[in-house]
Amino acid sequence: MAKPDTGSQWQGGFNEGAAKAAEGMEDFANQAKDKASEFANQAKDKASQFARSAEQKMEDGRRSTADALAGSASSIRSAGESTGEAVKTFTRKTADGLDCSASYVRDKGFNDMMSDVTDVVKRNPAPALLCAAALGFLAGASMRRYR
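The structure assignment produced for this chain is given below.
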């Protein structure tokens, strides 16, 4: 009577088990890849929504700033009408400057304004540094006052 070859049976079972394990790991890897892709798409969508919301808020702020500048120009122009000629000339120039600023803010996007600021700073670094220091000082002073 011949003995059964248990070594080859064991080896065949091992190979079958290893193949199933590899198949299971491949399925797991595919599921992980799909979940990661899904998560990345959700994150991308959320970032896009956030960017659109921030852009809309900046656009609204830009419009309201332009409207406030135009309103201030109108008020200054009206107030200067009942004064002497020297004050009237000064208020007219001030109002014209505010109107010009309102038009600039209304017509330019945020990126255009930042580009303009960058150009001015590059052309005039020392005055820009002094303005930044003065603004920092004023911001610090106002924060100290409201503590």
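Interim note for the steering committee: Helices lie at 6-80, 85-107, 110-123, 125-145. The chain has two domains: 39-107, 109-147.
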